[in-house]
Design goal:
4-stranded antiparallel sheet, alpha+beta, about 230 residues, about 45% helix, single chain
């Protein structure tokens, strides 16, 4: 019943359900699932890796909080395999858990975050370079009319006005020395070019999130009904 529900939400019995906050937690869990699937696929392509080593890496990620897990997983598509090859080599030398924690902390300090770009257009990796980017096409007067692509940091602020078909998970950069720009509340960001991590079907993603929310609400109601009998 509670598959995909953040554990801190499940444990918070004293606080009534804030539906939007809860939905955000479910959405973040869904996003992490997609990125972890991509991570595992790439991990299995590392030279000489075996099943036990793959499981050790997956288990090592479980110690990370949501913020550091997002930073660790915010690796652009074309860089992921090279990055994992290097990390696995280091993990074999220094220990997997130590390598994961240090890498997650490093990526977080560099300002890397997972963010979300909605679009009706289908984008794929370049067949020659494997680079997967989205170019900014909307002139922004705040940036001397440079073409910008926009993204949000949460579900609530997804830009849905253009009937999106795809939800692109992208790497945001909140460091000071970057071409990325954010608003004061870190609700939105923009950049001339976005580096894609992966993409999902927008409608399917929203349906899955809403189903998990509804399943949880039904479970709460059932517990209330059972308690009054």
């Amino acid at each position: 019943m509670n598959e995909g529900i953040p554990q801190d939400v499940l444990n918070n019995e004293s606080n009534p359900l804030d539906e939007q906050e809860f939905r955000e937690g479910v959405f973040l869990t869904y996003v992490h699932e997609q990125l972890l699937d991509t991570f595992e696929d790439a991990l299995c392509e590392v030279p000489d890796i075996d099943d036990d080593e793959v499981e050790e890496w997956k288990d090592a990620l479980l110690v990370l909080d949501d913020v550091h897990l997002s930073a660790f997983l915010a690796v652009p598509h074309e860089m992921l395999q090279r990055r994992l090859n290097a990390l696995v080599t280091k993990g074999r030398r220094e220990g997997v858990q130590k390598t994961v924690i240090e890498a997650a902390d490093d990526f977080y300090k560099r300002g890397y975050r997972v963010a979300y770009h909605c679009s009706p257009s289908n984008s794929e990796p370049d067949p020659e370079t494997d680079a997967w980017t989205i170019d900014g096409r909307e002139a922004d007067h705040r940036d001397k009319d440079i073409g910008m692509a926009y993204y949000s940091f949460d579900l609530k602020n997804l830009y849905r006005k253009k009937n999106p078909k795809y939800l692109y998970l992208i790497r945001a950069d909140v460091s000071e020395e970057t071409s990325h720009r954010q608003d004061g509340n870190l609700d939105w960001g923009r950049a001339p070019k976005l580096d894609v991590l992966t993409k999902v079907d927008y409608q399917d993603a929203m349906k899955r999130v809403e189903k998990r929310v509804e399943d949880y609400k039904k479970g709460i109601e059932k517990e209330k009904d059972d308690g009054t009998q």
